[in-house]
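REQUEST FORM: STRUCTURE PREDICTION
Request ID: SP-0412
Submitted by: Lab K.M.
Chain count: 1
Length (residues): 432
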Amino acid sequence: MLCLLILLAIGLYDLYDHLRSEKLRKSYKPFPLPSNDDQHRLASRDVSIVTPSIKTADSFPTFLNTLLDQDPLEIIIVTIPEWEERIETLVSSDQRCSQARGQRRIRVLTIDHPNQRDQIVKGIDRCKGKIIAMVDDDTSWVNSTRILHLLAPFEEDDVGFVAGPVNYVPKERQDPRIITAVEAIAIQKRRMRNNAMKTFYAADGSTNWCLPGPTILGRAEILQDPAFQRAFTGESWRGVRCNIGHDGFLTKWVLFNWHRLAPHRGRTDIPQARRWRLGIQHTREAELLTSVERGAGLTFGQMVRWSRQGLRTRVRWLCDEPGFWGMRRSHPYLAWRMVGDCVKPLLMVVWLGALCGTWFTPGYRWVATLVYVVYLLRMLADILDFVTDYPYCWVHFWVVPFVRLWPYFSDILVLLYGLDDEVWSNRDLEGS
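STATUS: Completed
RESULT:
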């Protein structure tokens, strides 16, 4: 009987959580654009772009052209000396990029060591725009992207950082005959994340752990503040200075207004009365396209890296700053979901035990069968939604249950793979 009660309790809570999440997701509203151009407080020429780059790909000029299409004030590329010549060559190989370089709209800077955060800060210090966009060098601001849509949340004075949805697969690969399982996994993972962004933001103004790293826009007054930069470049994990996780740090700084916390008071240029919040602009026009490696080993490694960063974020936020109770005061939905993610593996074990116990309890086998069928139907409905949204992925429909079940064992894999690793990207460069 105990197994039956546990099974029903978990099932009812799961149903409640699903319905609540759907209600929140549907209640999300994007930031509206001003009704006419004269009402825009910010324009594309108010935006400086910072791009840290290492092991730069041959497609770099194409990436730069997608940025130039948005007509920003400047593009600042920050690399290390051994890659400077290659970047200079790639920029010069494209007529439009070369012309922009001559006009000082594209600049290449270097630092003496590879570290994503240090490279970002080097670029930030040279920016002249009111808004600074931190953009990964494998991201494309595709044709549908309009920078004014990403700037719209900044029309509200208390919005500090902004991000939009991310997609992976370009049109030329949206074909069931050529799309790989790796790309389908990335699409499903991003599909879940994009939906969760709406849910979290509608619930309490937060996001699911962190803003999407490929492109984050922030106010220059925050990013150029000395207190922010000291904390950003000085953050460490078990005594090692952090290289990765800039997206998580930026999210935490704004969500919990770190400039107001005791360690940073008196050392910041931002008035202590100022309170910041996030802006999530989840519209088709704000969507960005980023790359995905097609090798199975690389994708497994990338999923582990994503999960590692998520686990580190949960441990740090729940146990250190701001702590569970501090988080709960300002963003209760985020706090609760973080705790829920931490206990997911345990809940899975309890649920499976309760399901088996109910199955072997005389007279209640039908309950276990019903619960199993309900979960199976929900999974099938999710697969149908996935195939409907991405018909070119129908041959890889199995990625839906794979990605859905991944969080239940990912933390264990992270611990085995290494929680302390500071690998930057798919290009497999170790940070310092």
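NOTES: Confidence is low (pLDDT under 50) at residues 428-432.
Reviewed by: T.R.
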